[in-house]
Structures are given as structure tokens and as C-alpha cells.
Amino acid sequence: MATYKSDFLHTLESRGFIHQVSEPEVLDQLAKTGQVTAYIGYDCTAASLHVGHLLPTMMLRWMQKTGHRPIALMGGGTTRVGDPSGKDESRRLLTDEQINENLKSIRQIFARFLKFGDSGNDAVMANNADWLNTLNYIDFLRDVGRHFSINRMLTFDSVKLRLERQHELSFLEFNYMILQAYDFLELNKRYGCRLQMGGSDQWGNIINGIDLGRRVAGAQLFALTSPLITTASGAKMGKTAAGAVWLDPNLVSPYDYWQFWRNTEDGDVGRFLKLFTELPLEEIAKLTALKGSEINEAKKVLATEATAMVHGREEALKAEATARTTFEEGALAENLPSFDAKKSELEAGIGILNASVQAGFVSSTSEARRQIKSGGIKVNDVTVTDEKMTLTPKDLTQEGVIKLSLGKKKHVLLRAV
RNA sequence: GGGGGAGUGUCCCGAGCGGCAAAGGGGGCGGACUGUAAAUCCGCUGGCUAUGCCUUCGCAGGUUCGAGUCCUGCCUCCCCCA
User: Fold this and answer.
1) Catalytic residue among A10, A19, A32, A87
2) Straight-line distance from CA A335 to C1' B33, in Å?
3) Is A236 part of the annotated catalytic residue set?
4) What ipTM describes this predicted complex?
5) Three-class DSSP labels, chain A
């Protein structure tokens, strides 16, 4: 890889964000001498962003930090179509109301990463529904459609794979790549946007936009993609048993978010520190050099930094402290997740099976039974052996709570109210 | 339109002579070992008021003491012919 002269590309490169860049020298020169505007597209199929969105969002953040202007493009229009890339089945289509609601809540999450506004290199949030929804079909075909070769489109992986595997690919989905190319063109017109970034699977789509821009507007546009992130042991990143790791504190608490990063595999710590925190590289190098179990210190730093980015430093430190008391001191931490139980019910005795379900770490009493059988459930750090056991006021600790645990990592407090 | 094939445990893939809560994987969860890691090994992986009861094999009926398995109709997908 070339060594970049611009802060922007140099930073991305040295932190491991770059997979492919089109015309790297030209882009580097542009970024060095002036302000570049770039965008990344996000779909709005969910009401929150998750860990998988973190990497592209960090790219936007670094962009802004190095003096350039980021655009977060919300796919309010394209979400109505669905990207076929890498999927065998069509995405379910969402209603406009759903899409708009999702947009609203996602907007708030973005505000934590980027400074939005109207001046200098303030970030812009655009929504492609603004231009896609009002498209006139005939005009679009004539102005844009003529530049796309079906022959060529059929060779793109996203299409080819679907066809080879004999899976359905509707015309609607087939158009996705055209719309995405059009987005690039439109953002170029509206904001002078010249660079589109995205995951490596977006390369083909981005190139389409570049071609369209050259043909229609005579613009020189650029592509930059980031590598696909998997864990050292090959699993997809950001998935846990409970599903996606959301960035919304109402969906995944700061404590759980901290825990997610704390449990990073050894082999990923260095890479993740570079990608998901803003610590200087020298410091990361020091942390990565730690051997054996000392690497746990690096994981804590990763967890706290990553959590601070999304939930604020205060929440991050609180999560760190809670983890320290719970795991390292074996003591009871007040800030563990908790749920309430009525005092009267507790006096009558709450069955451990039901309590486990209420605590949220098992989904049925049957599962609770199984966990007890294999020694996975603890009350106040004592393994439960009898599934008929009941919790009573006697089990309350001095702090007035009962600590329920599943396995070694999941702890929930029952509070009597 | 004609001929052939497929749809299985609501995470996925996939076996299944009429006795089936249904083989085997993957994934996940728990246990052991560790360092809240990985790898490895062991156990579990429909629900419930639980030595029993209830609900599951595309959908709806039927045959049978008994149906994932046989029959009929329907839906969806794929292949070949038109």
C-alpha cells in the first residue's frame, strides 16, 4: 500500500480502515490540498444502528476530524427497495411510516459521532427519499438508465450469485444498484460530494456511481471501501445470543455494551482498538504488546473507550466500575442490571424458575430447569441445586437485593419494592 | 398449459421402514480447564401448574388403534417440455 500524504487517508490507512481505494494518488492529493466531501449510505431497516455500523461511522468521524465534510446518507428511499447484495432472499419491505420512525431514532445516534450543522466541515444528514421518491420513471430511464449496461450488471457478484444459485431476484431489487449510483450523482450535484465509502461488498455499487458521474456530469468521483470485519475465530462481528449489539442504550445497556467489548477475543484487541477507539496508535501498540492474561487490561481499555464513544464517558466508567466489583472483587455491585419484584410476592416466596425468567436470562421455565440441572444458576453466588427452591426475604442481602446469576457472566439483581 | 422434484424441530443445514418430541451437524447456552479470551473436552438445546399433560414436520381434509411417513385437494419454490 502506498503511504498517504493526506491526514485523512493516512489515518484511515494506519488504523486499518482501508480495503480498496480507486485512484489513491489523486484522492490523496485532493484530500491534502482541500476539503473533500464524502458519503456513506445507511439503510433504515431498524430503529437503531448496531455494532456493524460502527466501522463506517468511524470513517465519517475521522473524516470530519481531519478537516473534511462527511455526509450520512439515510436510505429512506432505497430502503423501500432493498439491497440484494449478499442475500439470497428479498428483504421485507417496510412502510414509509416505519422508515421515517427509524430515521428519527437513528439520527440521534449519529449525533454522538458527528457534528452536524451548516458551516465549514459540519456533517450533513441527507435522505435519498428526497430525490428518489419524486423520480419520474421515463425521465429517469432516459437520463440515467441509458448509461447502464445489462450485460455488465449481470456480471456483478450481487446479481451473479443470485442467478447462479437460482434464487429469485426481482426487477425491483435489480434496480437497487442503479439507484445507489444515482445517489452518488445526486450528492455530487447537491453537495459536491466526490467520494463514496462503504464496506468491501459495496465496491461494485460504488464503481457504478463513479461511472455514472463521469458520463452524466463529467465528474471525477472516488471509491473507498473498508474490510469486512470478522472476529479472529471467523465469526461475524457484533452478533450475540440476544441478537445484534445495538448502540441505543434502551436496547443494549451501557453495561452490556461494555461487556460486549470486554469479551473480545485476544487476537482482535489490537485491531479493534485501532478501529473502534480514538486512542493514539503508540498507546495501542503498547496495549497490544501485553502478554498472556495481561491482555485483559487492553480489553478493559477497549471496552471503556468504545463505550464512552457511544454512551459517554460517565456511563463507560460506571460500567467499568460495576464490572470490577463484580468480577475482580467478587462483591455485589449496585449498578448491575436489575428488575423489581413486589415485597408481598417475595414474602410469599418466588420460585427460582420464575425468578430466572423475570431476570431475563432464560426464556422459559423449562430452560431455567435445564440450567439448574447443569449448575448454571446461582443465587447470591451459591449454585442452585433444587429447582423447587423459592426466594424469600431471607435471601435479601444487606443491600436489600438478591443477586441472580446465569453462568459466570450474567448477573441480575432482584430488588424488592 | 404438460411432466418431474422439493417444502421437517419458528436460528440455519439436514436424515427420517406407519409407533416420533423426530437421527446428525452448525450455531447457541451451561459445565470443566483458563484470564470474563481462544482451542479442547462434557452436558443441554419444543412448552406447561411436569413420574403426567399440551403443541410441533408448507396448508386443509381423509385412511388407520396410531400419520412427518399413505390418499385427496390447495399454496409456494425449483427443473424439463410447450
Assistant:
1) A87
2) 30
3) yes
4) 0.86
5) CCCCCCHHHHHHHHHCCCCEECCHHHHHHHHHHCCCEEEEEECCCCCCCEHHHHHHHHHHHHHHHCCCEEEEEECCCHHHCCCCCCCCCCCCCCCHHHHHHHHHHHHHHHCCCCCECCCCCCEEEEECHHHHCCCCHHHHHHHCHHHCCHHHHCCCHHHHHHHHCCCCCCHHHHCHHHHHHHHHHHHHHHHCCCEEEEEHHHHHHHHHHHHHHHHHHCCCCEEEEECCCECCCCCECCEECCEECECCCCCCCHHHHHHHHHCCCHHHHHHHHHHHCCCCHHHHHHHHCCCHHHHHHHHHHHHHHHHHHHHCHHHHHHHHHHHHHHHHCCCCCCCCCEEEECHHHHHHCEEHHHHHHHHCCCCCHHHHHHHHHCCCEEECCEECCCCCCEECHHHCCCCCEEEEEECCCEEEEEEEC
Instruction: Considering only CA atoms, name the residue closest to the C1' of nucleotide B49.
Output: A365
Tell me the nt nearest to A319, Cα to C1': B36
pTM, 2 dp? 0.89
Q: What's the pLDDT tens digit per position in A351-393? A: 999 999 999 889 899 999 999 999 999 999 999 999 999 999 9
Q: How far is the CA of A242 from the C1' of B43 (A)?
A: 22
